[in-house]
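Notebook entry, structure prediction.
Reason for the run: the old model in the group folder had no record of what sequence produced it. Starting over properly, with the input documented here first.
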Amino acid sequence: MLSLSGTGIGRGIAIGRAIVLDQGHNDIPCYRISATALSGEIERFNHAVDAVRADLKRVQRNLPTDAPPETSAFIDVHLLMLDDPVISQQPVQTIQEQQQNAEWALKSHADTLIDFFEDIADPYLRSKKNDVAQVVGRIMGELAHSPGKQPSDLATLGSSLAEQIIVARDLTPADTIMLRGRNMAAFVTSLGGPISHTAILARSLGLPAIVGLHDVIDTIHNNDLLIVDAATGTVLVAPDEPLLAQFRELQQQHLRHQQRLTLLKSEKAVTQDGEAITLLANIELPEDIEGLRSAGAAGVGLYRTEFLFMNRPKPPSEDEQYQAYCHVLRRVEGPVTIRTLDLGADKQVDGGRPDRETTATSALGLRAIRLCLSEPSLFKPQLRAILRAAVHGDAQIMIPMLSSLRELEQSLALVGEVCAELEREAVAFNPKVPLGGMIEVPAAAVSADLFARKLDFLSIGTNDLIQYTLAIDRVDDSVNYLYDPLHPSVLRLIRTVIRAGHEADIPVSMCGEMAGDPAFTRLLLGLGLRHFSMEPSQLLEIRQQVRQSTLAGLSGQVTDILNCVETGSLYDLVDQLNQTDSD
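New structure, fully documented this time:
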């Protein structure tokens, strides 16, 4: 048995067989093919390409009726890649002229194509190298006479992954779409940290996961039996029967705990001393509404609209966005906070970039509201769609990554411009949609009182606020050890924003991962937070924490935490805070 340790996401336990997604082809041997064997080698290569094409078409034909339409489009891209001469024809010439084996000939040309995409400045076009690697990985699998041994992309895994555990180098935000409805047991990745989008993906799917397991892709093999313990961040490979029995019992205990939590669905989120707390849900796609309902959420505190732009060649039209927003607004009782496009950095999507070259987007670059203000042709259709859809429900608009009042003033002006256009066109819309801002940049947190004067609500995005405050790149797992939600600077900024909202008499919510962590619920209550938004799978646990808490006395304990200067003592104080008032 082998034990591996990483960063656990969630608290569940999964037991299942590994499916290793490996796009790598670096350890390919190179050897000479005799002249008499060349025709057979070429036939072997062509057969592998044809087999991959047939397999992709089979998967596409057998997609379930409720599969997202983007899945078929994703497979189409890979079918087009197979027809690229660099992949399907040039290796044949290399086999013939240089008498090299098919694997090496394919690798040589694929590496050239990948290098070409790598040198392109535009993030969307550069990301096409991943499609090349995935297609080449499938051909390599066929050449190795092991079709399906190493699946190369999520689109071809089939409609159900029950009792299967995905093992990959990393999973992107766009993978959310590919993984929904697959019923997999868990996933494990080499990269990622506690606030990476891989971790957010795990929470949104309600799955146990382990991230930051370096070299796991080379350690775990297909069909290995795995135990994933998200609470401890441990993966056990090939466990023996006594250990399996022990973890199956722990798994059942967790399931029983989750079943007890479901009894709280219809209970009010009210503290022991009668203070009502608003618990909202984060969603990514209209299909997420069922999870919101099953958790008893009071509405949507964060609708991540960039997921509408993923796995497609062009941005969705205004009418397509309008229909998606209407679908949510008509089915959700309570407010629906629609965040405008938050693209850039690690959230690169096919349909979210203008058709022009630009520099690579970093976490500090042209992203979120910066991108939207620089590209009104991308931003205005979304604003029009939201304002039109707001006729059908309780919509709110939230602007991400505000860092200056100038950006806010430009955003307000653009909203006014769109309202004037819709009025001239005699198109039905709601001109009184509340406008709020995400406070996730330290500059905005420090100046939260200035933003509060011009906005209808504030929402604290702790994922980026922690990243920017502590100078941590959320996609760089080598600095994950610096991630600390209890860092005094982070806590003081949170307190500053909450106070600014209270003084301006506007609501303040929190929609980052910290809001859904029960370890911080009482701390946030003591800081004055009364609106929480989280993944639906986390909501019942937070409701339980709220119902077991008494606000009276929390503020004094939180003051001690804020004044604490020693890390060890600070964590002890938080533990003491969480041990009081429990049923």
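Summary: Confidence is low (pLDDT under 50) at residues 146-150, 346-361.
The old model has been moved to the deprecated folder.
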